[in-house]
Amino acid sequence: MDEFTRCASANTHTPTTHGTRVLAEVAGIVGTCLQFAWRVGVVGVLWRSAYIKTRRDDLSSRRV
Prior knowledge:
With about 60 residues, the protein is mainly α. The chain has one helix at about 1-64. About 0% of the residues are buried.
């Protein structure tokens, strides 16, 4: 009976630790993706604002 209890408790702990490990890995992957997307977004916004500024300068220089 003691051996069975030990085996049962080991079986109940294994999925929990495995699930926690999987959740931690998924959270890490999602965090990395969000960090990458945030960096790309910041670079994209900066590039877009710089591009719009140069386009405005080109348009204003063409009018004159």
